[in-house]
Amino acid sequence: MVIYNQIGAVAILAVLAAGALAGLLNALLIVVLKIPDMLATLGTMFVIQGGKLILVDGQSITPGMTRSDGTTAPGRFTEGFLRIDRGTVLGIPVPVLIFGGLTVAAWVFLARTRWGRVLYAIGANPEAARLAGIRVGAYRALACVVSGVLASVGGLILAARIGQGDVSAGTSQLLEAVAVALVGTSVLGRGRPNVWGTALGAVLIGIITTGLTIKGLPYYTQDVVEGAVLILALVFSFTLSERRTA
Fold it and tell me: What is the pLDDT of residues 128-164, one digit of tens each?
């Protein structure tokens, strides 16, 4: 929209496609090259962050920015695009509707379809799933691509919120994302990832962060509190679950 003066719809499709490509890159590293999931995704994160900075000469993408050739970027963030974060439908903020829609869609997919049950089986014991005739590699690749697309949706909302393209804007939310996933494992529990638990974890972390902001506490206080929540989630997910099993 800013550098190439495109409309919001084109920008949204480009971002979703970029998320899918990032997922494919992760799938290549994890499924084909057998790199552990966490290490592979951390590596691609650094590569993508650096690549974005190279493309824009280390600048944030803002209306009126100066490009590498000395010219001024002709485009801007369109009103339609900014409505992704700032708009409402029947008084409900658009991000809340997106969150709710994706939560329901993920629950239906994972809990009510064969593909979702297969993904749970692979997560529990990939070798047993392979021996049962499941194409483990294909499903893991699918999970990577879907994860990349969902991450790109989060990026769209964040870009619409701050009104610019900043590669470091979501850095502080990395810890929050990990905490949300682990809280989702420990609550509503069963000791495994589940959609409604993850949604509840996201709401919980959001309430904590918002409350700290309203109280006017320093930003670094949030890291301390979120880290404590993460440790507590780990205790519930691993230590207490092992004792219950024993």
Answer: 999 999 999 999 999 999 999 999 999 999 999 999 8
pTM of the entire structure?
A: 0.85
| CB distance 150 to 18 below 8 Å | no
- The span from the CA of 216 to the CA of 119, in Å, is 42
The rounded distance, in Å, linking the Cα atoms of 107 and 125 is 21
Name 244's Cβ contacts closer than 8 Å, sequence gap at least 6: none
Characterize 166-197 residue by residue with b for buried, 16 or more Cβ atoms within 10 angstroms of its Cβ, and e for exposed.
Answer: bbeebeebebbeebbbbbbbbbeeeeebbbeb
Contact 87, 97 (CB under 8 A): no
Could you tell me which of 146, 165, 155 has the C-alpha nearest to residue 102? Answer: 146
Q: For residue range 103-129, what is the model confidence (pLDDT) as tens digits?
A: 999 999 999 999 999 999 998 899 999
pLDDT tens by residue, 20-33: 999 999 999 999 99
